[in-house]
Design goal:
Blueprint lengths: L10 H15 L4 E6 L6 H15 L4 E6 L10 H7 L11 H10 L9 H16 L4 E6 L6 H11 L6 E7 L3 H6 L5 E3 L5 H11 L4 H10 L3 H6 L13 H14 L3 H12 L5 H10 L4 H9 L3 E4 L2 E4 L2 H10 L2 H14 L2 H11 L5 H16 L3 H14 L3 H17 L3 H12 L8 H21 L2 H15 L4 H18 L2 H11 L6 H15 L8 H6 L14 H7 L5 H18 L6 H13 L3 H18 L2 H18 L2 H15 L5 H17 L3 H11 L9 H6 L1 H10 L3 H18 L2 H13 L7 H14 L4 H17 L3 H18 L2 H13 L17 H11 L4 H8 L3 H15 L4 H4 L5
Parallel strand pairs: 1-4, 1-5, 2-3, 3-4
Antiparallel strand pairs: 6-7
Helix pairs in contact: 1-2, 4-5, 5-6, 11-15, 12-13, 12-14, 12-15, 12-16, 13-16, 16-17, 17-18, 18-19, 19-20, 20-21, 20-22, 21-22, 22-23, 22-24, 23-24, 24-25, 25-26, 26-28, 29-30, 30-31, 30-32, 31-32, 32-33, 32-34, 33-34, 34-35, 35-37, 37-38, 37-39, 38-39, 39-40, 39-41, 40-41, 41-42, 41-43, 42-43, ...
Length: about 900
């Protein structure tokens, strides 16, 4: 960018952004991440996009903020600036979301979890978008305060209709990992012609042009700001370092008072002119100094807001100052500020211990946590630990900081804080030292569980549980519960059962011990497996989870593979709602994935896709790759059932690439199963056979007993059709043995289907009828598998020339496949039906099949009696949007009002 408002050499990028804005204005949510080195033109493109949106799309709401390089731990400071133009519109939100958002921004409200705050931001954007385009333009994302960055990325992953999110940042490894799933545009240097045009505006001519072109490397800011080279080579220094040096040189040329004011402005992180002037005045710099800095082109002042010419100016000024000068600036700011801001500036000025200040910061951290700013809590507690005087207290604070970082989706930061805590020396160990060491063992397990090798996570969690058992047996039970999950992911069934049984041996409330026994039974899969998750919930220990949300996880883990998947699915839906309402984002991906799996098994494929996608986005928000792999595997399975080959393989490949390095055999196995399902539906039995063999091979990288049991009929079918009939019989025998051991209805049905699939021409027809009856009975509530059994039986009846009976079963299969949305399998059943000489009914589908996934969710909530406002709060949409969906739902279902929805099978 040269003259203010002029963009040089970015025609293709500008056209792309304008197209994106047009798409968003037309009702398609869009997100784009602009990435490039400092000065490459990201801000100029954002400015141009904002100007275009305001000019070409009347009624556009523009929400802008810029991250600031700072040592400040100001939770939601960036979000407050971003939403400042629309704070008077928070009344559009349901009361709980309004309270959560206003509480986070320090405007009253109430305490709320991080998920509640993020959801409120998303809901506000969508509510605003009912009146026109909403443009979210966020610059220097890498420097946003962590809670704001999390909220912005949460919204950017879920842009609703008429919302465009344009984010810009320099490349940074941590941020690049956090945004790898977002659409991105990498900005390169300007072409020579555009670079020369910019230099011409600057007045550079002749031989100086070639020298500056070489030095600037096409970077617009460098072209505008670097001094003309003096004939020497620019040397090995990176371009941003040379730019900082240029800005620092300009600042050093100013009077001392102006340099002081610039330093105070660099130390203050929110660009508040009144605060900067008040603090600078205490150091002898005032309005005259401000005017001098502004005339030098290093600052822009627009009334209450103060902004540096470029972020590199801020970093150059701050880095060029000595520590004593920086400390004086921070102390001056502390004198004109109050509360946490004052404490934090004092902390940045301190060079030695100060337990009184450390305690104040710890109290601040408690208040920040109540506002949903866990990521900022980590920074505050880490600084409090540095200022503290007692080693035990320092360890405790660092451990608490690590826990906050982990819960807020920053596992790398959490790991570094744990390492710092472990390195604290304790010359005189005491009770607090022991408590800190215990907490560190727990944190090692938590971090590994969400993002590390699952075999290692299982080991760390069980070791932590044993360390806690003599002192905090309830915490040991919770750690063993997580260890079971890690072990299940790693495919270590025997070790998982042992961990669950260990819970039953702890010196805890008898109800905890009962839970341990139930969990062991569930993983063993015996006839004693509980049927009713609600009954399990009622038997929960009173103190299970201080937040009261953990109590929903245990019953679901215990019953999700039990004898009543429909009841488990209903419970899972309620559990997810309760955890959402509590705003505990870190806990939500796991129950969402269990829900999606149950929905997939019970034939609710659209809902399974919605919930697996929600789990995937949350897992990426939280940097939890284990859950991300699980979600991708479920999405691959849904795509396979829909017959969407490209999407299935894409999801499965990404799931495997994420899962295998983490020893997440559960996700790797499910991804293989998904591709096998796709192949089976298309008649490629050889590929299905190849994909499923590793899943059924203990010890392989994809070997997983649970997925093997769920896919027994698929492997049997593939082996039989691929000509390996002896292997198919062995697979069927294993399925039968497991079914007899477990007594689970769905397992007995799987075994019966396997026997149908391996029936020979000599099999007694009465045995075939018995196999079909057992499968039909056991697959009640599992329509895909019931249809598979009907198809297999119908195929056999047709081969046996029992055409009338075959038609009945095959029509049944066609209708079931059609109703749940599995067109490849439906067409296969139709082909078999035509082979009997009958024509297939072109299924009307059931009521749910006529709706889009979002319409279905709205209709189900309306059928339960929820108002449009309540539906909007539940689904993060405006009441008006909920009403719009119902307006489309009624004619599709042939009803005229909400009351009639209750009578439909939704």
């Amino acid at each position: 960018m040269g003259e203010r408002g002029t963009v040089y050499g970015r025609e293709s990028e500008r056209a792309f952004l304008r197209g994106l804005l047009a798409d968003a204005a037309a009702g398609h949510g869009r997100t784009l991440f602009l990435r490039g080195e400092p000065g490459i033109g990201k801000t100029a493109l954002l400015d141009d996009a904002v100007a275009h949106a305001v000019r070409e799309h009347p009624g556009t709401t523009v929400l802008r903020c810029t991250g600031v390089e700072s040592d400040m731990a100001s939770p939601f400071g960036g979000l407050l600036g971003l939403l400042a133009p629309v704070l008077d519109r928070t009344g559009l939100l349901p009361p709980p979301q309004r309270a959560a958002l206003e509480g986070a921004l320090g405007l009253g409200g109430a305490e709320a979890g991080e998920l509640a705050v993020r959801t409120a931001v998303l809901s506000l954007l969508r509510a605003l978008a009912t009146g026109g385009l909403v443009l979210l333009a966020v610059d220097d994302v890498q420097w946003l305060d962590a809670p704001t960055r999390s909220a912005v990325l949460f919204a950017a992953r879920r842009p609703g209709a008429r919302v465009a999110a344009l984010l810009a940042a320099r490349a940074e490894p941590g941020l690049d990992r956090a945004v790898h799933d977002l659409p991105a545009l990498e900005l390169a240097g300007l072409a020579p012609a555009a670079a020369r045009a910019l230099l011409a505006v600057r007045g550079v001519r002749g031989v100086d042009t070639a020298a500056l072109l070489a030095a600037a490397e096409g970077n617009p800011l460098a072209l505008a700001e670097l001094p003309v080279p003096d004939g020497t080579a620019p040397g090995p220094l990176p371009l941003d370092t040379r730019l900082r040096d240029a800005f620092a040189h300009r600042a050093r040329a100013l009077p001392a008072e102006a340099r002081t004011l610039l330093l105070v402005a660099a130390a203050e992180d929110r660009g508040r002119t009144d605060v900067v002037l008040a603090a600078a005045t205490r150091l002898g710099a005032g309005d005259v100094a401000l005017a001098s800095a502004e005339r030098a082109g290093l600052l822009h002042v627009t009334g209450p807001a103060l902004r540096f010419r470029h972020p590199l100016v801020r970093s150059a000024v701050y880095a060029d100052a000595s520590f004593p000068d920086r400390a004086r600036a921070h102390l001056a700011l502390a004198e004109v500020l109050t509360g946490h801001d004052a404490h934090w500036h004092r902390a940045l000025a301190r060079t030695g211990p100060d337990e009184e200040l450390a305690a104040a910061l710890e109290r601040d951290a408690d208040a920040i946590a109540g506002r949903g700013g866990l990521a900022a809590v980590a920074a505050v507690l880490a600084r409090a630990a540095e200022l503290g005087t007692d080693p035990g207290t320092r360890t405790r604070r660092l451990a608490a900081a690590a826990h906050a970082a982990w819960k807020s989706g920053h596992p790398d930061t959490a790991g570094r804080l744990v390492a710092r805590a472990a390195a604290v020396e304790h010359p005189d160990p005491g009770p607090e030292t022991d408590a800190g060491a215990l907490e560190l063992t727990r944190l090692h397990g938590l971090i590994a569980h969400s993002g590390g090798d699952q075999e290692d996570a299982f080991r760390k969690l069980t070791e932590a549980a044993e360390a806690h058992a003599p002192y905090r047996p309830e915490a040991a039970a919770a750690l063993l519960f997580m260890a079971c999950d890690a072990g299940e992911h790693a495919g270590h069934d025997d070790a998982v059962r042992q961990a669950a049984s260990r819970i039953a041996e702890l010196r805890v409330d008898a109800r905890y011990r009962s839970y341990g026994r139930l969990l062991a039974v569930a993983y063993e899969g015996t006839p004693e497996a509980p049927h009713d998750p609600w009954a399990v919930l009622r038997a929960a220990p009173d103190d299970l989870g201080t937040s009261r949300v953990h109590r929903w996880l245990w019953p679901l883990a215990i019953t999700r593979d039990g004898p009543d998947p429909l009841r488990a699915r209903d419970f899972a839906e309620t559990a997810c709602e309760r955890i959402r309402e509590a705003g505990v984002a870190a806990l939500l991906p796991r129950p969402l994935l269990w829900l999606a799996d149950l929905e997939c098994r019970t034939g609710r494929l659209e809902e399974a896709a919605v919930h697996a996608d929600e789990a995937l986005r949350l897992a990426r928000d939280l940097a939890h790759p284990v859950s991300a792999a699980d979600a991708l595997a479920v999405l691959a399975r849904v795509a396979a059932l829909h017959g969407d080959g490209p999407r299935c393989r894409t999801y499965a490949d990404e799931a495997s690439a994420t899962a295998l390095p983490l020893n997440n055999r559960a996700a790797a196995a499910e991804a293989a199963w998904a591709v096998a399902l796709l192949a089976l539906g298309r008649g490629d039995h050889a590929e299905a056979h190849e994909r499923l063999l590793p899943v059924h091979t203990p010890g392989s990288a994809r070997g997983h007993r649970r997925i093997a049991r769920l896919s027994s009929a698929d492997l049997t079918s593939a082996q039989w059709a691929d000509g390996d009939r002896a292997a198919a019989v062995r697979t069927a025998e294993r399925a039968t043995a497991w079914a007899e051991h477990s007594g689970l209805p769905w397992a007995r049905a799987q075994a019966a289907l396997c026997r149908l699939l391996t029936a020979t021409p000599d099999t007694d027809p009465r045995d075939l009828d018995d196999h079909w009856a057992a499968a039909d009975r056991g697959f009640a509530g599992l329509p895909f598998w019931r249809a598979r059994a009907a198809l297999a039986y119908g195929e056999r009846l047709r081969r046996d020339r029992r055409a009338v009976a075959a038609r009945e079963r095959l029509r049944f299969a066609v209708d079931l496949f059609d109703g749940i949305g599995t067109p490849v399998w439906r067409d296969r059943a139709r082909g078999e039906l035509r082979a009997t000489g009958a024509s297939a009914r072109h299924g009307h589908g059931d009521a749910a099949a006529r709706l889009t996934p979002q319409e279905l969710r709205v209709a189900r909530l309306a059928a339960r009696g929820l108002s449009n406002r309540e539906i909007g709060a539940r689904l993060t949409m405006s009441p008006r949007t909920a009403g719009y969906h119902l307006y489309k739902v009624f004619p599709k279902l042939g009803v005229t009002g909400r009351a009639e929805l209750r009578d439909l099978d939704l």
